[in-house]
Every structure is written in C-alpha cells, then in structure tokens.
Amino acid sequence: MSISKTYLSEIRERAERAKEKKALFGPDIDLSLYSQFIERGRIESLEGLSRQAKEAAIMAGIDIKEEARSGSYLQVDHSVVYERLNRIYEGKLEIMSTTEALTKYDWLEDYYWKAVSVEHDKYTAQAELNMTHGYFIRVLPHQKPEYPVQACLLVAENHVSQNVHNIIIVEEGAELQVITGCTLSKKDAEGIHIGVSEFYVKKGGKLNFTMIHNWADNFHVRPRTAVVVEEDGMFVNNYALLKSVKSIQAFPVAYLKGDRSSAKFNTVVYGLKDSYIDLGSRIVLEGEDTRGEATARVIAADESVIYSRGDLIAKTEGYCLAHLDCRGILFSDNGKIYAIPQLVSDGAIKAELSHEASIGPIAEEQVEYLMSRGISKDDAVSVITSGFLNLDIPYLPQTIDRSIKEVIKATAKEAL
Amino acid sequence: MQEMLKVQDIWVSIENKQILKGVNLSMNYGEINVLFGPNGAGKTTFMMALMGFPRYKIEQGKIFFKGEDITDKDLYERARLGLGISFQRPPTVKGVTLRRIIEIITNGGADKEGISENIKKLNLSEHLDRGLNDGFSGGEMKRSELLQLMVQRPDLVFIDEPESGVDIENIALVGEAINSLLGKDRVKDPKRSALIITHTGYILDFVNADKGYIIIDGSLICGGNPRDILSEIKRNGYRRCAVCQ
After folding, report:
1. So what's the pLDDT on residue A59?
2. DSSP state of A415
3. I need a surface site. Which of A172, A387, B18, B95 has the fewest CB within 10 A?
C-alpha cells in the first residue's frame, strides 16, 4: 500500500514554501538553468552500459561484474536503468527505487522526510517537487549480507538536475555495507546533482556507507544527508571527492538518538582546478554513552577553495565522547582552506568533546627521511600525500587507487 | 684494503653557522668506525652532510664514495649509490606504514623470505601496519631503522646514537641487529662499512669497531683504538682530548 496522499500533499506544500530558500552555505544556484528531463531505457546487466558510462561507474567504485556485491542499483539521469539483488539475499535485503518503495510501503511515511527537513532549503524542496527516483535499500532484521550493495547515480547529459531521494533502513541487529558512486559520464556537462539521503540504523544495527564523488568542472552538487542511529547502533561514513567540481556543499548529520550508539565520519577531499568545496560532518549526541568521531583530510591544489567543517553537538545528560580531527595541506599558493571545527555542549555536563585542526605543508623532514631510503623527492611527496589521505576503504576497485595516485603524482610536485 | 669513503677537507654550515671546519676521513671497505665527541661538536652534522641532507651545506671540500665524487649528489641519489642512515630521532610519518616503506624500498613486499625473518627477529610484526615511528618507543624506533636498512642493503651505514632512548633489554637486540646488518656474523659475504656515533659507548660491547675518532668543535682531532679512546673519555672527559693536540 502506498504512502498516504495526505502526508504527500503536506510535504509538497512545505516544499513549495521553501523552493526559493537559499542554503546557509555555498554559492546559490539558479535551478531554472537545469530543466532538461532525460529518460533512459533499462539495461540487462552493467556490462550493457556505454563505454564512457562504464568507465565513469568503475571510477566511482562500481563493480561492473558484480562479483563482490550483494546487489546493485543504477540510475542514469532521470531513469532507473538497473536493479539487481543477489538471489541468496531474497527475503533478506531489498533494493528498489524510492518511488517504487513509496507505492509499496505505507509505513515509509515514518521515514520519508523524517530525518531531513523538506523545507531545509531550495535543494531539498527541488528534490521533492521534481523528484527523479533515488534508491531504497533495506536490510531485514538480523541479516548481514557478506558483500556491499552498490548504487550508482550517473549523469550523462547537459543541463540536467538529478534530484534523487535515497533511503536506507538497517533493521534491528542487521548489518549492511553500501558503496555509492555519484558521477558524470559526460565530462563537460553542466548541471546539478541534488541528493537527499535519509538513513536509519535500528537497535544494534550497523551501516558502513561509502560514497565516491567524481564530478567535473561545470557541475554543481548539493547533497542533503541525515542519519538516525538507535541504541547500540553504529554508523560509519567514508566519503571521497577526488576530482574537480564547480561547487559542492554538504553538511551531513548523524543523530545518535539511542544510548551507546556511535558515528564515524571519514572525509577525504582533493581540491583541483577552481573547485568550490564546502563539506562538513555533524554529529549530534543525544543518547547516553554515545561516541562520535569525525576525521577530515583535505588537500587544496590549483585554485581550489575548501571549507572543511565539523560540528560535535552534545545534548545528553549522560556521558558521551566525541572527537574531531581536521587536517589540511595547501599544495598551491592560489588555493585556500578554511578549517572550521565547532564543539557545542548543550546542557551536556558529562560530555567530553575535543578537536584538533591543522593546516600546514608536508613536513620537509618527512620527505627527506624517505629520500634517505633511496626514494626520489617526487615519489616521497606522493607516498606521504597518499598516506595523508589514507584511503583505506574495503571493496573499492584498484583502478580508483591507481587513478588517485596518478592525480597525486601530478599535483604533489607543487607541494614543497 | 680498498678505500670506500674519502672525505677531503669538508667545511659544513647550517643556516650560515659554521659547524664543521675542515674534516678529513678515510674509510676502507668492511671497516667500522666510531665517532665520539661532546654535545654540539658536529658529529651528527658530519653524518648528515655525508648523507646529503640539504640543510647541511657543504661550503668547501669533497666527498668520494666508492671512487665517485658525490659532493654535489642529491640525498636520494647517495642512498641509491649505497649510503644508508639510522637516525637518532627519526621523524613520525603518520600515514606511511612501516610495511609500505619496506614495499617501496624492496620494490616488492614485506612478505619476502628473509625480510619476514628479520621482521620477526627484530620483534616488529605488530608495527608493520602502524605509521612510521608513530608512537614507537626508543627501542622500537631503532629496530625499525635497522629493519629498513636491512632491506635497503647499503654498503656504508651511518648509525647515529643507536643506544639513545633504548632500555638495557633492547640494547642487546639493537646491537645484534647492527652486527647482522653489517654482516659481521657472516664469514664469506662482503661486509658492510659503518660509521657509528656513540655517547655512552655501550654499543662497543656488541659491535667490534675498528677505529675511533673524536670530533670537537667541528674538527676531527684524533683517531685510534675505539676502546682506548672510550676509556680515556670515561676517565678524563673530552678536556684532555681538546688539549692533547
């Protein structure tokens, strides 16, 4: 049974009211520039993608052969072109578009726009008023699929606003890994990707979520993510942005509602060309004995500008512990990094919140140390830079690792 | 015996401050030399300048290694030619693991036979996936340095104060590792040469050194049997060395 019409119309009304509301951070985007609607036909397997689309998907972490994946979801522009669930997980794991899930489950009303507010800004409003699918992934209670589910949101055309709404539900005692790749197959495409993501980790559940963003020079990105974690639940978020982007602004938030729940954000950003990057992570500690950790490693090369934000907000009367670690390296004298950590204790008298933020060059003594082992200066800088970014994300194709190393090698020369 | 290293009248400054004032030294293949000297005399500067660290500026003089003039060679080029160094206090490199550096030096992996044996011997198995020197104790740092040198296989090794920051228990392990690195436990294979800086002389209980030298105020003032020199220093400090010239 589908979600109630009353709820949907109420949501629409709220979206209508917010459709001109500018975001707090990041340059304002004129959404009327991106009004193309592109529909695509279904494909039988990921091998059926065009060469460019396949390459883009691989570079965004997608395993085309699906050998080490529990299931796949692929969306190109405004159409869902592929969904597949590994048979052994039938009845244990669900993968479909959010649009389909909304027609199937009336209980989705308890999740749809419940973690992210539809009137947050014009981008959330756009995602509701002009929604173009997004994925719905749900792992049933106590199920623990061995391999990750992969989702790819790909833009292949110009002047597109891809407005997806993703929902992940990890039911009680279940565990799930998800790799999401958001990318472009048309490198000079102008457009915007708006991704609303609402994740729910139930009691004792675990969600390990990895997102690779591969955009290009003329593309804007506005993700809006919120995660609700119940007692003893655990959420891990790995995020990597390693290619240029016109502008991206996101500030995902994890609400640790349940006692003993935890959240960990690992963010890796490599700013290239004249990218405008404003990214952060926020952890709200509401339950007792909750734990939060947010780590960001950013490098600004070329003329890129990076805002690296982090908020830890404690609201529990009980004990909680959270740490923020934000480090930046500037590779170019035309680049800019702002590290903005913020700790808030809101009546949380037992909360222990801490942060360390630093911006500095690669230490020369580290480079020389490696050189004394016979490693050339360029290689030493690359090795240290790769180590600084520390992209140790399981199940990512090796091509990504190789490509990152190439980018580092090409830009790291400016570092010293 | 053939000459491996020849240092001719080198003058070295750091940030325009003259540290070494015309040092000469000759070392043969397979020879182990020990450098003594008070704090600030120029021992580490001498080693770092020979290794080619850019901060240590050679104002004058020449360095020949295996017959080749390396005075103007870059740090990593000297390392590739066969010079190696064990730091007194190596820097921490958080993101680069000990395993990674071994892989790079060996162009392969830490799992190769021989290498994994040394890792076990040096008690470093649990340190392989940690950042270089990140939270390592004094002894762990020295063992990690020696492991890296074992895989790098230099012909001439500079070892800066191997006993500093190492507890009594670990000194024997470090001493044995140095002997193993230098090939003193082998009969046939070519042996490595070493120049060792020591303050305490403890390392002489483990390493059979050939010659000792004293540096005072940037000059190499005397050479001789390392044990005799150490006994003299222990008896009278460096005061007599400074005047016996």
Report:
1. 87
2. G
3. B18
Residues A326-355: pLDDT tens digits? 999 998 999 999 999 999 999 999 999 999
* φ, ψ for residue B99, nearest 5 deg: -60, -45
- Provide the pairing of β-strand A219-229 with A253-256: parallel
Secondary structure (3-state) at B46: helix
- A358 vs B: CB within 8 A: no
CA–CA separation, A353 and A324 (whole Å)? 8
What letter does residue B167 receive in the DSSP assignment? -
Burial of B177 (0-12, 13-18, 19+ CB in 10 A): buried
What is the model's pLDDT at position A397?
64
Strand pairing category for B93-97 and B83-86: unpaired
pLDDT of A414 > 70? The answer is no
Rounded-to-integer distance, Cα B9 and Cα B20, Å = 9
B-facing residues of A in 360-379 (CB < 8 A) are 363, 365-366, 368-377, 379
User: Is A405's Cβ below 8 Å from some Cβ in B?
Assistant: no
The DSSP-derived string for A285-325 is E-STTEEEEEEEEEEE-TT-EEEEEEEEEE--SS-EEEEEE
Q: Among B127, B134, B94, B100, which Cα is nearest to A388's?
A: B94
pLDDT in tens, B198-207: 888 888 888 8
Task: Answer whether A370 sits within 8 Å of B131, measured CB to CB.
Answer: no
On the question of pLDDT at A27 being above 90, the answer is: yes
B95/A370 CB distance under 8 A: no
Global confidence as pTM:
0.85
Tokens encoding B108? 């392969």
From CA B29, how far away is CA A43, in angstroms rounded? 69
Would an 8 Å CB–CB cutoff place B54 in contact with chain A? yes
* pLDDT tens, position by position, A213-239: 999 999 999 999 999 999 999 999 999
What Cα–Cα distance (Å) separates residue A266 from each residue in A208, A256, A301, A308, A415?
A: 11, 17, 20, 12, 23
